[in-house]
Structure formats: C-alpha cells, structure tokens
TrEMBL record:
<keyword id="KW-0966">Cell projection</keyword>
<keyword id="KW-0969">Cilium</keyword>
<keyword id="KW-0282">Flagellum</keyword>
<keyword id="KW-1003">Cell membrane</keyword>
<keyword id="KW-0812">Transmembrane</keyword>
<dbReference type="Pfam" id="PF01311">
    <property type="entry name" value="Bac_export_1"/>
</dbReference>
<protein>
    <submittedName>
        <fullName>Flagellar biosynthetic protein FliR</fullName>
    </submittedName>
</protein>
<comment type="similarity">
    <text>Belongs to the FliR/MopE/SpaR family.</text>
</comment>
<feature type="transmembrane region" description="Helical">
    <location>
        <begin position="185"/>
        <end position="204"/>
    </location>
</feature>
<dbReference type="InterPro" id="IPR002010">
    <property type="entry name" value="T3SS_IM_R"/>
</dbReference>
<keyword id="KW-0472">Membrane</keyword>
<keyword id="KW-1133">Transmembrane helix</keyword>
<feature type="transmembrane region" description="Helical">
    <location>
        <begin position="43"/>
        <end position="63"/>
    </location>
</feature>
<feature type="transmembrane region" description="Helical">
    <location>
        <begin position="131"/>
        <end position="154"/>
    </location>
</feature>
<feature type="transmembrane region" description="Helical">
    <location>
        <begin position="83"/>
        <end position="111"/>
    </location>
</feature>
<feature type="transmembrane region" description="Helical">
    <location>
        <begin position="12"/>
        <end position="31"/>
    </location>
</feature>
<feature type="transmembrane region" description="Helical">
    <location>
        <begin position="216"/>
        <end position="243"/>
    </location>
</feature>
C-alpha cells in the first residue's frame, strides 16, 4: 500500500484496534491464570494489546467502520467492554470455586481466625483459601487450560459480532448458572472436610458424655487442626485433579465453544 493510502487507512485501523482492545483487554483482566490479581494490571493489559496485534488482521474484515458520531463510537466500545468483562467473568467464576472451597476448609479446620491478604476475594482471607487460589492459578497455567478461555474469547466474535446488542437476559442467566456451578464445585471440593468435621465433632460430643471431667476444648482445637491438615495433605493431589477436570468441562462450555 502506498504511503498516502496507508495514512488514509490509519483512522479505520485505529478504531478497529480500539474495538478489539475493548473486548480483549477487559477479558484479559479477569481470565484465569493470565488475569490473576497478583499479575500487575499493565502486564494484563499488555496481554490484551498482544492479542489485538495477533487478531486484528483476521478480524478486521468483520468489524464495523468508524462512525461519524462520537457517541456511537463510545457506545460500540462500551458494548465491547461489557462483552469482554462478561466472558472473562464467566471463566473467572470457575477458579473462584477453589478459593471458596479453601475458605470452607479453613472454617472446618478451625483456622478461620488466621487471616492473610487475599486479592482474589478482596480484603482478608484464610490461609487455606489463599493456598487454594494460588494452586488453581498454577494448575490452570501448568496444564494449559488457560488456552480454552482464550479460544472462547476469539470465537466469541462469531457468536457476538461487534455492534450487535448485548443479550442482557441471556447474559445474566449464564452468569447466574456459572455462579451456581462454581458454588456447587466448591462444596464438592470441600465435602471430605465437611465429613471429617462432622465425625470429629460427634466424637468430641460422645467424649463429653462419657467423660465430663475431660477438658474437651483443649483437646478439640489442636486435634481438629492436626487431623484437618493431615487430611488436606492426603487428599490435596486428588482434589487438584478433580478441580482440573471440572475446570476443563466448565471452560469447554463457555459461550462460543458450545
């Protein structure tokens, strides 16, 4: 292309790049593994820019021309940000199940008072919740599962073309279903600890009945913590495997891959 022609195309290319970055950059802030809160925001936005460079030649033909009205341009970019946050949020809810399971495990182990900063859930969280959050991020990156949400993001341009109205009803329903599935997964992951807590508390109740003179509290607290940590060390590999399988299934059901 001649330089004058290239200069004439620059405004359209810039607008197309802005449209792509609005969706891809918003999603990159939330994607599992790649969009973790521990990763600085400039790096996550850099990932979005890298995706724009890779995808612009392939997707430019399906993007609308730059409108003459500035309000229309802002509306298009705003819609793309909403779509990106929606897609990234659907994928993020899958990994939040591990953080919620860790919170439940801490409560059952008697470690709910030991709080640490938790960027995933915001504010302060439990040590096991933080451990499970980091384990989920490492698993997603090490197993290559992060590529599935990326593929869903790329293929979302066929499902939700740029400029099309966002289906708010279907989007809210999909988000609600993903949240319920995430909570169900968290409960399944924490189920062994729920059973262990029930058994321990029943045993302590029987001990109180049999030997009322025994100071059950001083036995219960360290015993519950030690038993819970031993159970955690025993089943953590299986728990991570179960999460990996569930995450793969959930990622494969993201919009655009169905």
């Amino acid at each position: 292309m001649e330089p004058p022609g290239l200069l004439a195309e620059l405004p359209a290319l810039a607008f197309h790049a802005a449209l792509l970055f609005a969706r891809l950059g918003a999603a990159a802030m939330l994607l599992p593994g790649l969009g973790e809160q521990e990763v600085p925001a400039p790096i996550r936005l850099g990932l979005g820019l890298g995706l724009v460079v890779l995808l612009l030649p392939a997707l430019a033909a399906g993007l609308p021309a730059a409108p003459d009205d500035a309000g229309q341009a802002v509306r298009l970019i705003g819609l793309e940000v909403v779509v990106g946050l929606w897609l990234g949020g659907l994928a993020r809810l899958v990994t939040l199940a591990m953080a919620m399971a860790g919170q439940a495990v801490a409560l059952l182990l008697g470690l709910a008072q030991a709080l640490v900063p938790d960027p995933e859930l915001g504010g302060l969280g439990t040590a096991t919740g933080r451990l499970f959050s980091l384990a989920a991020a490492v698993l997603v990156l090490a197993s290559g599962l992060y590529a599935i949400p990326l593929r869903a993001l790329v293929e979302s341009y066929a499902l939700l073309p740029v400029g099309e109205p966002f289906p708010a009803g279907a989007g809210a329903e999909a988000m609600a279903v993903a949240a319920s599935d995430s909570l169900a997964l968290a409960l399944r992951l924490a189920a062994p600890f729920v059973l262990a807590a029930v058994v321990i508390n029943v045993a302590l109740g029987l001990l109180t009945r049999i030997a009322p003179q025994v100071q059950v509290y001083f036995i219960a607290v360290p015993g519950q913590v030690l038993a819970g940590l031993a159970l955690l060390a025993l089943i953590l590999p299986a728990l991570l495997g179960a999460f990996g399988e569930a995450a793969r299934e959930a990622f494969l059901s993201l919009p655009g891959l169905r």
